[in-house]
């Protein structure tokens, strides 16, 4: 039995680091979870190829991975978000105003990973080589300190996120403003909708996702962009390098078996606002997604805990709506069919 097969993956998400406020995420299903706080409103979809995780009976894959350019990708963190709209409408006596807290400068919105405890003593041989490959081949804008007491690796969202779609705001025709996709298993496309098209055009943002990422590696370009309150932004982060089935990092010409060096901490992805106060202020988290390894023998009890807390409702409803069912083998096929079921069986 491989080391990886001794664990199940648990994916949760919320608006803060506090996991007591997180929800269990339905993996490989079209129904997103909704996260709302006074700082952000968001929808999150997670897809993992060859998924072995909770809740039990989740599909092992998603139609997402059959779409170009995702045929070789191993996971996707898809999310849309809207910052608070603090615009006060104009009256005969006062002009329309917008609170600075409702928007975030493009240079200040970060996306990446951080940890609560040191990992410097658990870094595998060859980590520095792997990090150089990551910065060269995947995200040149990535920066951080993996040797710190609270390690982190962040990049500007504008240059780190693989797909960015700028949607409309409250003044748009609601039928054409969404920055997300409603088709089950479909992939978000780079671009814009509604008044977001004018935003991209006026900012001279390239239409191609790789060109846009390169464009925003320049600090001044990021500073010229503003994530507006009340406007929806769609994002998709994906790659073919992190294998959640084997818990390994597979880079060009280089493979790291992460499971051998795991210290029990979850892998945490964070969307956060950068601080401009002092070095001890690490900014404000807006959205947090956790990938946690649960020992196989504790998986059933772990799922029960989330169900009994009421924080697995969306995940369970999504599974039921998709017609997901566990076959005799206990394994799911893509689309939620039981092993051995015919295509015309509901």
What does this molecule look like?
This protein is α+β, with helices and mostly antiparallel strands and 346 residues long. It has helices at 127-137, 157-160, 196-202, 209-215, 219-223, 299-308, 313-321; strands at residues 7-14, 23-24, 33-36, 41-48, 75-82, 87-88, 97-98, 104-105, 109-114, 143-145, 152-156, 163-166, 191-192, 226-227, 232-239, 242-243, 248-251, 254-256, 267-273, 284-295. The strands form 5 sheets. It has a 7-stranded antiparallel sheet. The chain has a 6-stranded mixed sheet with strand order 3-4-5-15-12-13, covered by helices on one side. Strand 17 and strand 18 (254-256) form a beta hairpin.
Please provide a brief summary of the model.
The chain has helices at residues 127-137, 157-160, 196-202, 209-215, 219-223, 299-308, 313-321; strands spanning 7-14, 23-24, 33-36, 41-48, 75-82, 87-88, 97-98, 104-105, 109-114, 143-145, 152-156, 163-166, 191-192, 226-227, 232-239, 242-243, 248-251, 254-256, 267-273, 284-295. It is built from 7 helices and 20 strands.
What is the strand arrangement across the widest sheet? 2-1-20-19-9-11-10
- Largest sheet, strands/sense/barrel: 7 strands, antiparallel
Structural class comes to alpha+beta
Number of helices: 7
Shape type: globular
The total beta strand count reads 20
Radius of gyration equals 21 Å
Mean pLDDT: 86
Percentage beta strand: 25-35%
Helicity range of the residues?
Answer: 10-25%
């Amino acid at each position: 039995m491989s080391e990886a097969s001794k664990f199940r993956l648990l994916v949760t998400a919320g608006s803060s680091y506090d996991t007591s406020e997180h929800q269990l995420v339905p993996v490989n299903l079209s129904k997103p979870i909704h996260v709302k706080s006074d700082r952000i409103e968001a929808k999150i979809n997670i897809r993992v190829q060859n998924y072995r995780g909770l809740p039990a009976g989740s599909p092992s894959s998603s139609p997402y991975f059959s779409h170009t350019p995702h045929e070789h990708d191993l996971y996707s963190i898809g999310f849309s978000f809207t910052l608070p709209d603090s615009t006060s409408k104009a009256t005969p006596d006062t002009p329309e105003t917008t609170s600075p807290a409702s928007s975030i400068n493009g240079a200040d919105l970060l996306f990446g990973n951080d940890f609560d405890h040191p990992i410097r003593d658990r870094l595998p041989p060859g980590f520095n080589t792997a990090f150089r490959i990551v910065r060269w081949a995947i995200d040149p804008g990535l920066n951080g300190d993996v040797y710190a007491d609270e390690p982190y690796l962040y990049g500007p969202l504008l240059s780190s996120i693989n797909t960015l779609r700028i949607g409309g705001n409250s003044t748009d025709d609601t039928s054409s403003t969404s920055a997300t996709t409603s088709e089950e298993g479909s992939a978000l496309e780079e671009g814009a909708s509604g008044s977001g098209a004018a935003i991209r055009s006026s900012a001279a943002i390239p239409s191609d996702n790789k060109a846009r990422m390169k464009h925003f590696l320049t600090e001044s370009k990021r500073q010229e962009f503003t994530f507006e309150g009340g406007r929806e932004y769609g994002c998709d982060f994906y790659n073919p390098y992190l294998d959640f089935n084997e818990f390994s990092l597979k880079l060009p010409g280089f493979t790291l078996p992460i499971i051998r060096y795991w210290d029990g901490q979850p892998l945490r992805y964070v969307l956060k606002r950068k601080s401009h106060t002092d070095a001890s202020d690490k900014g404000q988290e807006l959205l947090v997604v956790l990938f946690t390894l649960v020992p196989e023998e504790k998986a059933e009890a772990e799922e029960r805990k989330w169900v009994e807390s009421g924080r697995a409702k969306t995940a369970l409803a999504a599974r039921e709506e998709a017609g997901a069912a566990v076959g005799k083998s206990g394994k799911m096929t893509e689309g939620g069919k039981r092993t051995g079921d015919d295509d015309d069986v509901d």
